[in-house]
């Protein structure tokens, strides 16, 4: 039976992601530049990241004034309703800046600390993935499921790199050892889309160190609701330390391998 609160949160998240996606797609200035940098000179923010977050938080606050917020571009509100929205207004900002299509709006709703709704809209793909806790995963409202797992040697694995040079050097070492053991590696540039690609059967697995809650909250729920397994280091949930998502049999091999390779530390 569906929960009326979850239904309400899903409809709001879908509408907010659609509005922000249209703003980003149709309103992208031809001369889009970098407005600011964050953790390093290559960790960039554009005026559109800020405009998108403003649109999303404004829309959600109008409908649910007592909810909390955590947004990458600074939204930080402690609410009183038990609901908190976790927002990445543009996931894949470097792709967006360069005019590459792989970027998304990611919106998750937590109830009492648990993610109950996830929406990832990828306007240049014409696709929106969503999931509600316990209700399966969908792409453009069609049910999706992870891929039947191949042996690791035939698995297509997505990953990503952080913005700090020291972390990247460690991440490159992990990839160096992994790439001869798998079909190939993909670096798409949007963690939220990578997680949806696991959900839709377009990647056999994905892992990354250093993700923040706004990168992973919606996508991890979507991957899990598509039947994939998600986690961090063995026995741990997906986190900043490490996020892994994969078809179950691939997960069973990939997670311990990443543990041995030290993919969870710099
Ligand atoms: C980044 C993307 C990228 C991942 C980075 C994230 P941003 O998010 O998801 O794929 O590798 O770790 O920080 O900065 O474009 O929102
Ligand atoms: Ca992000
Ligand atoms: Ca972002």
From TrEMBL:
InterPro entries: IMPase, Inositol_monoP_metal-BS, Inositol_monophosphatase-like, Inositol_monophosphatase_CS. It comes from Streptomyces benahoarensis. Keywords: Hydrolase, Magnesium, Metal-binding. It holds the Pfam family Inositol_P. It is an enzyme of class 3 (hydrolase). This is Inositol-1-monophosphatase. Pathway: Amino-acid biosynthesis; L-histidine biosynthesis; L-histidine from 5-phospho-alpha-D-ribose 1-diphosphate: step 8/9. Belongs to the inositol monophosphatase superfamily. GO terms for biological process: inositol metabolic process; phosphatidylinositol phosphate biosynthetic process; signal transduction. It catalyses: L-histidinol phosphate + H2O = L-histidinol + phosphate; a myo-inositol phosphate + H2O = myo-inositol + phosphate. Mg(2+) binds at residues 72, 88, 91, 215. SUPFAM superfamilies: Carbohydrate phosphatase. It comes from the Bacteria. Transmembrane segments: none annotated.
């Amino acid at each position: 039976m569906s929960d009326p609160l979850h239904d309400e949160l899903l409809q709001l998240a879908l509408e907010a992601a659609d509005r922000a996606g249209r703003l980003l797609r149709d309103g992208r200035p031809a001369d889009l530049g970098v407005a600011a940098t964050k953790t390093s000179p290559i960790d960039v923010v554009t005026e559109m990241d800020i405009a998108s977050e403003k649109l999303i938080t404004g829309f959600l606050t109008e409908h649910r004034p007592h909810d909390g917020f955590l947004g990458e571009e600074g939204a930080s509100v402690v609410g009183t309703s038990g609901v908190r929205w976790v927002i990445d207004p543009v996931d894949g900002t470097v792709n967006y800046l360069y005019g590459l299509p792989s970027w998304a709006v990611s919106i998750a709703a937590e109830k009492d600390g648990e993610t109950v709704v996830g929406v990832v809209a990828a306007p240049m793909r014409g696709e929106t993935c969503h999931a509600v806790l316990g209700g399966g995963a969908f792409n453009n409202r069609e049910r999706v499921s992870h891929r039947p797992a191949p042996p690791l040697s035939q698995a297509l694995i997505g990953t990503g790199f952080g913005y700090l040079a020291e972390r990247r050097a460690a991440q490159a070492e992990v990839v160096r050892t992994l790439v001869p053991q798998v079909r190939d590696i993909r670096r798409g540039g949007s963690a939220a889309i990578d997680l949806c690609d696991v959900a839709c059967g377009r990647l056999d697995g994905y892992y990354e160190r250093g993700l923040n809650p706004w990168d992973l909250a919606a996508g991890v729920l979507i991957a899990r609701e598509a039947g994939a397994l998600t986690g961090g280091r063995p026995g741990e949930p997906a986190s900043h330390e490490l996020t892994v998502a994969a078809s179950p049999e691939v997960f069973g091999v990939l997670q311990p391998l990443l543990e041995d390779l030290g993919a969870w530390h710099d």
